[in-house]
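Morning, I've got a small favour to ask if you have a moment. I owe you a coffee for this, so here goes:

…
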Amino acid sequence: MAAAAAAAAVGGSQSPQAELPAPGLALDKAATAAHLKAALSRPDNRAGAEELQALLERVLSAERPLAAAADGEEAAAAGGGGGAGAAEEEALEWCKCLLAGGGGYDEFCAAVRAYDPAALCGLVWTANFVAYRCRTCGISPCMSLCAECFHQGDHTGHDFNMFRSQAGGACDCGDSNVMRESGFCKRHQIKSSSNIPCVPKDLLMMSEFVLPRFIFCLIQYLREGYNEPADVPSEKDLNKVLQLLEPQISFLEDLTKMGGAMRSVLTQVLTNQQNYKDLTSGLGENACAKKSHEKYLIALKSSGLTYPEDKLVYGIQEPSAGTSTLAVQGFAGATGTLGQLDSSDEEDQDGSQGLGKRKRVKLSSNTKDQSIMDVLKHKSFLEELLFWTIKYEFPQKMVTFLLNMLPDQEYKVAFTKTFVQHYAFIMKTLKKSHESDTMSNRIVHISVQLFSNEELARQVTEECQLLDIMVTVLLYMMESCLIKSELQDEENSLHVVVNCGEALLKNNTYWPLVSDFINILSHQSVAKRFLEDHGLLVTWMNFVSFFQGMNLNKRELNEHVEFESQTYYAAFAAELEACAQPMWGLLSHCKVRETQEYTRNVVRYCLEALQDWFDAINFVDEPAPNQVTFHLPLHRYYAMFLSKAVKCQELDLDSVLPDQEMLMKLMIHPLQIQASLAEIHSNMWVRNGLQIKGQAMTYVQSHFCNSMIDPDIYLLQVCASRLDPDYFISSVFERFKVVDLLTMASQHQNTVLDAEHERSMLEGALTFLVILLSLRLHLGMSDDEILRAEMVAQLCMNDRTHSSLLDLIPENPNPKSGIIPGSYSFESVLSAVADFKAPVFEPGGSMQQGMYTPKAEVWDQEFDPVMVILRTVYRRDVQSAMDRYTAFLKQSGKFPGNPWPPYKKRTPLHPSYKGLMRLLHCKTLHIVLFTLLYKILMDHQNLSEHVLCMVLYLIELGLENSAEEESDEEASVCGPERCHDSWFPGSNLVSNMRHFINYVRVRVPETAPEVKRDSPASTSSDSLGSLQSSRRPKVLQRENSGTAQVFSLVAERRKKFQEIINRSSSEANQVVRPKTSNKWSAPGSAPQLTTAILEIKESILSLLIKLHHKLSGKQNSYYPPWLDDIEILIQPEIPKYSHGDGITAVERILLKAALQSRMNKRIIEEICRKVTPPVPPKKVTAAEKKTLDKEERRQKARERQQKLLAEFASRQKSFMETAMDVDSPENDIPMEITAAEPQISEAVYDCVICGQSGPSSEDRPTGLVVLLQASSVLGQCRDNIEPKKLPITEEEQIYPWDTCAAVHDVRLSLLQRYFKDSSCLLAVSIGWEGGVYVQTCGHTLHIDCHKSYMESLRNDQVLQGFSVDKGEFTCPLCRQFANSVLPCYPGSNVENNLWQRPSNKNIQDLIKEVEELQGRPGAFPVSISSETNLSKEMESVMKDIKNTTQKKYRDYSKTPGSPDNDFLFMYSVARTNLELELIHRGGNLCSGGASTAGKRSCLNQLFHVLALHMRLYSIDSEYNPWRKLTQLVEEVNSQLGNEEQQPEVPILYHDVTSLLLIQILMMPQPLRKDHFTCIVKVLFTLLYTQALVALSVKCSEEDRSAWKHTGALKKNTCDAEKSHEVLLSFVISELSKGKLYHEEGTQECAMVSPIAWSPESMEKYLQDFCLPFLRITSLLQHHLFGEDLPSCQEEEEFSVLSSCLGLLPTFYQTEHPFISASCLDWPVPAFDIISQWCFEINGFTERHAEQGKALLIQESRWKLPHLLQLPENYNTIFQYYHRKTCSVCTKVPKDPAVCLVCGTFVCLKGLCCKQQSYCECVLHSQNCGAGTGIFLLINASVIIIIRGHRFCLWGSVYLDAHGEEDRDLRRGKPLYICKERYKVLEQQWISHTFDHINKRWGPHYNGL
């Protein structure tokens, strides 16, 4: 520990023991310790204590060059570094020894642990740890469990999830304050305190003496190491000190883990004030201690903290200069009431009780807060330790130590108090910190453990003023970033707001403090104190007002803003976290009637704060134009507390509402936001950039809406219900700037709005009114109804996954509110309104998640467009909901046409809000509706169906909510006389609907058509209903009417306000003053306005009826339904919910109007009787003509475009038909041609680039678009059906011995050991691993076109998902990924036709012909010598094929670069492609030719390319295996005599399929069919012999002798050569001559097969042995000659294939059971050739019998390849692998992954496993899959595919209970395997279609 301690121990001290030689030291320590322990155990232990002190003084001496080490590196450089380390270890050793009191330290630990009453788990973890949270068991929302406790407890069926800890945490198992006891795990269920014995005194006695010194020593180091430079100390220095202290802190941490007994000792040490005083006072002789104390004081001072030594001095001090004057002013009022809390000094008589309290002085109220901010007095080790922890910015080790102590209750209380005492200091350090993120996490890591406990929080609140401290600290924190508000009155505003651009807000630095505040407010006892404390409420409202009006947006009118500020993120986050969350916390405690008082308090101070705000910004009644802020937290506090008061506390609303004037002010800003939303959506703010749209979206987005738009709309509803309706309605149209549009004239001038925005603003205004009047969220809906409405709205927009629904439904943000995600009501409502659609697969491979879709009855009865509009973030979602609704109605046959949004009856209003409905019954609204109906009927511009829809909706709402039925029809008869001076007689919509309006006087521009008319003579200014407009073309000012001033100028509002309320009908209202300021009117002078009088003669009813005619397009289309069926009026069945379009809406409204009044009914009938005059013809003005022409032109352009598109489509179709035709060029040569069509000469290809078609020629070859990829899929075949499982324990491991690739490798290396290399390379195939697979999309192109296409791709700067330099491209037609072009061999089909004719030559002649043809070198129609374009391309594609795979997969020869290698590689490419096609067909050919693989196959072209190159290597005819197969060789002995040279591979060891490919590729192309059949027949004889040999080796000695005997008897029968018994006996007798069967003594048991061989089982064995060869051959025949494959049953596959290949003689009868031997056709006498073949084997087995036998038994029955089998539950994989360590660096990798092909564990992106810049996953993908890797990312549950140099995320095969992926395990719900998805993945792997199906590829740069 101390560098100096080394010197001391060696002899710098009085004690003689130190001079002992080193070896004795350890023993001596123990002795000393034992001696001291004995001394201290005596009753009088003073001497022992002093001796111990002296020893500790010496060992733990702090006089060491730590400061030097921290300042510079010189200490280390001088070699001091090592010394220091050694000395520290030495000191720790001493401590351990002393604690153990002479015994062994480990035994001591064990002894202490025995006394641990472990009731709590308390395991502390740091960030990124995987923990669990169970909502069913949690009392506090922050509850968390470690994995061990979680799995040990019983949480089945609970609502739990796994999560990655963000900030760190601790396990709460065993803590009944935080969780229910039922959830405790087995270890912590027992309350074990009773049966734990008492701790013996002497066990921990030494600890009590040693630890204080040890901790003091630690504190001294911390003091030493902290150099307070002028600027902030650099991270590096602090970290260095911390590194030096690592062992000490770890030692302390280990002590805490010893359990309860040791913790209580530590608690005593840490909290004992006497100890602290004695050791740290800095008095005394020790210079070192003095220096240390001085450093401590300096550190305090530099932190801006005073150390109150003397009360008096401090009392006189002014508030420290560091605080802004504003704060002091602000607090003067705020904290005056807190005086009574200052009495804590009096309680503080007893020193130990006052633990954690600071000395407080009676100060004037403003400096009281200074004491919170600036005074710290440390009285114990714990306090100073925390001080340094904060100073060093919460080092992880220290935090963990402090938290590990928490299970000790006494410590917990002391520590919490200390933490609170340092709260202000924490805030200051946090603000200065560079690493504020890390620090925030560490702070919350601590505070969440302390404040989640209600009991503790209450105690600290009472004893330490926790609430005062928190609120004050938050206030101080925000004060550092205040700026002047620019809202409203920029020059004179006194309001200050936070600046969202400051780091404090941008980086969310405030969140730890706010989250603590929210956390403690969730405790009822604490929240109550807060709500009762007026002073605190004032301060808090003060804090909230800092956010009122922040982030102000000013509309850009001229240019686009240069720099789009992104501060709005910070602003929304701040309002949500700092204002809304605490508000929800408080609201959750105001649920019952008894809490009325709290609400009154909040509302009172909220209104005061609002009043102050209005005064500060100089607000009168006009909001400043062109600016908007979305942040009005004070309004929202007010609204939410009002809502709670009415809903839960039965408060009378009027008792908490302010006067009318205040209400008028309150409504202005929320209304401004609603109007601005409409402006933003009308693109009027487009010059402000995208961010303003972002704000509009965030404001309504699900996480924010219930803290933002919902309270705003509710507040407007409250204002509307209490203010004069005419005033409110006119304000709305005024704010939305559409007043000028509401005129009867066909043209008007709008001074504040451009014409193109008018329509959408009008729609906005009407939509807003509809929402305002229909929404019942806070006006009477119950919580469950709200939840249901929200859910229906979200589901109607789109089908949703369970998690997105949870995310989209705004839940009450306060976690204790009851609606928890996944809570009972959520699930039950969901199942009531939605059906679950299980995840399905589309053929394209796109994977769906499990979705919820609305039930039919929801569409039928609950779809609510109003709610949808309110909740849509994107406007397109409204359209999407309507489209889905339309589709439902069509499908269910309820309504065929285009429906309108349905009208829905609303939940009844809460009585307090009844006034809201007066809006529907005010003349202003009726005039607007009348005007709009008239304008729509007359086709004025800028009106839309949407406007009409909203107008009708409002009328219908008015009818539904009419105040009172008309009591007496007669009363209204005298209507016209009475109301000669106004538009409408009264304010009831029902009666106003029938009121006729004859003439209206309007002001119009002189150009308007109305001006041309002469006004009727009778019109005068007082004519009935005439109307005169004011100076501005405001709509419809009435003359002599009490309501003439409806749309009065807003500037007059204040003056008129009293009159509006009194509704006086005096003439006074008519006075119109000119507008006070001009800053509103648009630039440019308005054209002259003149007055015109329009003849209207309509009422709302007549307009509706005419509208019905207009909409239906028929005259007299409306007929009152009650004339036929009077029942309608008596028992009206008006559904709650109605579907239909405009026509049905009009009919519904007329019916309701008739129902509500007889008078209306009569008038409707009257109107219908008069034949309606035609609608007046429309006068087309020049401007309109222009727009009409435009429309027409557009229409024509559209038609032209359609025509072109159609033409193009038909062309493409015909082209596709030719390209994709069954007889398409893919099988160009094998075109099946009947003899009748000899005229077809050559295959024709279409080039998809230039569009020309023609044959492929040598000069201009055509090629197939192909993708070459290396594949190891074949190598993964195994010989057993049981798929391998992914290992999930240490025991299960996967060894790849039995894979196809491994077996073939072993075989090849065995052959190479004993035989000649060149011969070995002809005896087998390679390419099981890293073979090249060629696939095509079937499209062709000219090779020169392709080259120019590639050139254009190269120059294309767009980022593609592929690399053009590597030759990659996408097919120009179908966009499939490709990387090469395979030249098509020019061939003529006639010739092909001739080749196919069967010839009658016998087999001997054919064999000779084959041999001759093979010997003829390069006999090829295209001579290679002359370099043609074709041959060049063939060469280049061959190069591509070679480069596709790695060198190690093509070089198997012992002599590198030998031509044999290339030869082997080339025929193996053919083998790979055939084998893979067989696998794609399911491993057999039973399904016949109808396979997609055949359609797109390019094997034919591939064969030509390979054959061309194979012919370059002629096999020396000496060694041509064809000879050995077809001729008897005479001189056998010469070979054996030649001992030195390695022999050739015996023919029986050859792989027959490889021989087939060699023979065929050596033939000149195109091949003749009879030659092909001949080769197959010859090879079948060899294959059959191999099968017999293998069978003979497999069976037992007895079987062999029996068979040998039976076969020998039949040898002379006629067809002995075709009897397997005879042949088998012959083989056995031949091989018995050698040693093959000999050494069976040892091997007997292994080789004997347990089954007894019957003839049937033998036959089956032989057939199975031969089948793979027959399958490959049939496929080859199918591709070369285009013959269809027959389909068959599995059991007859052998016979069908052999007859298809021509092996079976045609006259063969099929009655008796099929015998495989009948296919044999021996070219030379069978027994001779067999004995010749056996002779070779015998020669080899003479020396190597074992290997000889192994080589004979070939396993040819491979099962299909599979990926590993995965466990059902993802958790089993996760728990095993996420903690598994990397084999290279033995650390747990950050991103572990596992290969799904072979089960290897790899580190994704891990640097530890990097080799030559390749990371491990990439390397593994090359080794395991030749470039294709499939990895499961353990921490994300996602599968990632690596293909060559690209990768993509494939998706997940694990889904949760709702059929959803959980990428990155964010939700942490249990996941289960989705078998279908896994099948799809496996299918894509086997069929090599990853490149085509997955679209999002990116380069990985070898970094995965």
User: Anything to note?
Assistant: The two ends are 43 Å apart (CA to CA). DSSP finds 77 helices and 30 strands in the chain. The mean pLDDT is 77.
